[in-house]
């Protein structure tokens, strides 16, 4: 019951306050990670992976150990432990921020202001947005909502439920490093390998639970069947082993075509198609994706409540 109350408390705090506008701990962590990368990421390709592994350990292990010590040390004061847990979990999730960013794209897109929509989606995705048409903007935003719903919300909740404060801190730091170092660029291809693979490992289970949640949260029985089919037939073809199932299931649930070619760092990249064919993304799909994330969250909370009831009765 305590876990459920902490999760609900963190979600309510996120809904009320969103992400801290000033002095977010992850911003300070990002600065430290930049400093570490600048000193360890040398030009020698033979040492790139070892340097990246060392940087990952130096960035993640001390703070995870601190979280474990805090988790253990505060158990003598349950109320204080609960409050601290709510605060740390709140800092680790980003539901409200994600949905607000998505709304900043959807509104101008619905009003026909493509320039403003492109500027807003550039805050969400790593692809080049200057030449995207309205369908491209809607597709990029819908993909971001689905994928970041898994990363910024469901995976963080999963690791808190599995391993408490050290679990969610470990996950959030590793996921942040993957977002910073995990690109296939000349500078980070080898150095960021350890961060990318570790993030893949941490997301292996929660991503599939998220995909299942997206499928079950389909608005109709046919949407549920379509989502499960897309997950099963398309999830494995995506370049990311975890984003593929998540986005394929979400595309099926929303009945929208995602994936396909997109510009990254000045180069056109062909990507597999996800979801049903010939269903181009529109601004309404962005809003539907946000509602899908919230319906999936309700499914997770209901499952957690049922699990607590079963364990209470045993």
Describe the structure.
This protein has one domain. It is 72% helix and 3% strand. Helix 7 crosses helix 8. The model has no long low-confidence stretch (mean pLDDT 92).
Number of strands: 4
The helix/strand order is HHHHHHHHHHEEEEH
Side-by-side strand order of the widest sheet: 1-4
Structural class: mainly alpha
**Unreliably modeled segments:** none
**Number of structurally distinct domains:** 1
Q: Tell me the distance between the termini.
A: 14 Å
Oligomer: single chain
Most strands sheet: 2 strands, antiparallel
Q: Any idea what the radius of gyration is?
A: 20 Å
Pathway: Cofactor biosynthesis; adenosylcobalamin biosynthesis
Protein name: Cobalamin biosynthesis protein CobD
GO molecular function, one term: ABC-type vitamin B12 transporter activity
Family: Belongs to the CobD/CbiB family.
Keywords:
314 residues, mainly alpha, two-stranded antiparallel sheet, two-stranded antiparallel ribbon, 3% strand, globular
Provide the fold topology.
Layout: H1 2-17, H2 25-40, H3 48-73, H4 78-92, H5 95-110, H6 114-121, H7 134-181, H8 193-216, H9 221-234, H10 243-254, E1 258-259, E2 262-264, E3 267-269, E4 273-274, H11 283-313
Helix pairs in contact: 1-4, 2-3, 2-7, 3-7, 4-7, 5-6, 5-7, 5-11, 6-7, 7-8, 7-10, 7-11, 8-9, 8-10, 8-11, 9-10
């Amino acid at each position: 019951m305590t876990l459920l109350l902490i999760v609900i408390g963190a979600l309510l705090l996120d809904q009320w306050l969103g992400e801290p506008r000033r002095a977010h701990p992850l911003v300070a962590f990002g600065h430290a990670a930049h400093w570490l990368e600048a000193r360890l990421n040398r030009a020698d390709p033979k040492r790139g992976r070892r340097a990246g592994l060392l940087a990952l350990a130096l960035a993640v292990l001390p703070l995870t150990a601190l979280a474990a010590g805090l988790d253990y040390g505060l158990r003598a004061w349950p109320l204080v432990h609960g409050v601290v847990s709510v605060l740390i979990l709140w800092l680790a999730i980003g539901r409200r921020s994600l949905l607000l960013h998505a709304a900043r794209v959807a509104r101008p897109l619905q009003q026909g202001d493509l320039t403003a929509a492109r500027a807003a989606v550039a805050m969400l995705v790593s692809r080049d947005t200057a030449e995207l048409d309205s369908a491209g903007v809607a597709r990029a935003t819908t993909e971001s909502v689905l994928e970041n719903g898994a990363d910024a919300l469901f995976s963080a909740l999963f690791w808190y439920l599995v391993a408490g404060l050290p679990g969610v801190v470990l996950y959030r730091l590793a996921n942040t490093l993957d977002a910073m170092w995990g690109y296939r660029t000349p500078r980070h291809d080898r150095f960021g390998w350890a961060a990318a693979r570790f993030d893949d490992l941490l997301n292996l289970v929660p991503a599939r639970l998220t995909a299942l949640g997206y499928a079950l949260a389909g608005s109709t029985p046919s949407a549920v069947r379509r989502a499960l089919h897309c997950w099963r037939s398309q999830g494995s073809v995506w370049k990311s082993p975890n984003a593929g199932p998540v986005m394929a299931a979400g595309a099926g649930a929303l009945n929208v075509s995602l994936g396909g070619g997109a510009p990254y760092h000045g180069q056109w990249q062909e990507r597999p198609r996800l979801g049903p064919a010939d269903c181009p993304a529109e601004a309404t799909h962005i809003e539907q994706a946000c509602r899908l994330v919230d319906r999936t969250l309700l499914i997770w909370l209901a499952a957690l409540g049922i699990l607590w009831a079963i364990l209470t009765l045993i």
